[in-house]
Each structure stands twice: as C-alpha cells, then as structure tokens.
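## retry 2 of 3
previous attempt timed out at serialization; input unchanged, resubmitting
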Amino acid sequence: MIIYPLSEGSFTVDHTKRFVPFDSERHQLSNRPAGSILVEIQPFVVITSRDIILLDTGLGFQTEQGTLQLHENLLQHDINPMDVTKVLMSHLHKDHAGGMGIRDEHTGAVRPAFPLATYYVNAREMDMALAPGSSSYRPEELAVLNQLERLERIDGEGWIDGYIRYAWSGGHCPFHQVFRIEENGEVIFYGGDEAPQYQQMKSRFIAKYDADGKRAMELRQQWWTEGKDWTFLFYHDIKTPSICPGQS
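## retry succeeded, writing output
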C-alpha cells in the first residue's frame, strides 16, 4: 500500500473555533488571541490494489485560484480527485469534514468534492452533526451528505469489502470511529482524533477537548500495544505523519 500525507498546514484556533493559518517563520503564537492553540491539519490518501482511499477531508479551504486545497494536494501526487473510490470519515467536526464538499463562491451551494466515491460515515455521528446547536459541526456544509449518490451509514464494528475494518471508539466525540486497512500482511491504522499525534501514543495523556478523555487515552495505549507492526497515521502531526512502532 502507498500512503501520501495531504498536509494543509498549521492553524491557530481560539474560543471562536475559527482556523487561522499560521506560519512559524512569520507569525508568533503570542500575537494571536488569548487561549489560541496551534493545530496541524493532515488528511491522508492510501492507495491499495483495489481502491484510492481518502481518510478524512480537512478544512475545505480553497486556494487563491479557487481550487479545493485537498484536490490540489491530491493532484500534486498525480491523483485525480475523481479517481478517489472511498472516503472514510472518522467523525464530522469541521476540521475533519470541511473538504467533503465544495462551496460555490457565487451561489453558496455546496456540491460533493468526490462525487464518484463512496463516503463511509457513522450513522449516529451524522444524525448528531446535522442537528442544530453545536459549534463543532457545520450543518449547512454537512448537508452535502444528503446529495451523495454513494453514502454508507455504518455503526459499531464491521468490514468494508473484506479488508477495511471499522470500529466505534467514542473517545473524542460520542460517535467517533477508527479504521484499519489490511492488505498483503500490511496494516494501516487511522485513529482520527483519538490517535492524532505520535507523542500522545507514548504517554498517559488525557485531552480536555475529548468527550471521554480517559477512554481516548486507554484506547491509545491499547492500539499502541497491539499495533507494534502497524503503520499509524497521525492527522494532527505534520512532523511525524506516520510511524510503525516496531521499526521506530
């Protein structure tokens, strides 16, 4: 299998939950609003013998030319976005799901960013995200889910095409899920926001931003112990996008 990180860069986020681009060579965190934290955004594409798989979809920002940043990142790896066959969503918070659709600057309408792919979304997460009232979701943008010709609402644990395992995890948010892609003896693990950074895997870190921080911490320890020969993908870690514990 081939893995390509699709980094969208670094951002600061304050209480407004707006993502503002941050360049460490030009910007100072101390000059951002009080309480701002630094966040790195990095979806992944995995190429298997059967599929081109996208793991989460980033912020949905567009380039100055009006191209979806995620599309641009795929094209840099000679991947036509129309060739993506599966989009696997860990959850639907706006920093992971913003690139599911493309907004028309003139009409405001949102259309699917990967119209030929099958999107796999936790059913209960989708219901929660489309309901009004949470600043973590953007229901008006997530409405693109209702336009998809190929949408699989999944829940609990199961397999996709016999080689992609999904499992409810529920640490970062109540209906978060994780994925394990297995092919030819190789295992790629994607834990979304419950395994977001390399350093978090090695410590008993409990994040205040998790719905169930203790559960997320315990899951990280479980996966890190079980997955000595897996390749872990880290969505919020540009410096260490992936690692196999047994080879590190």
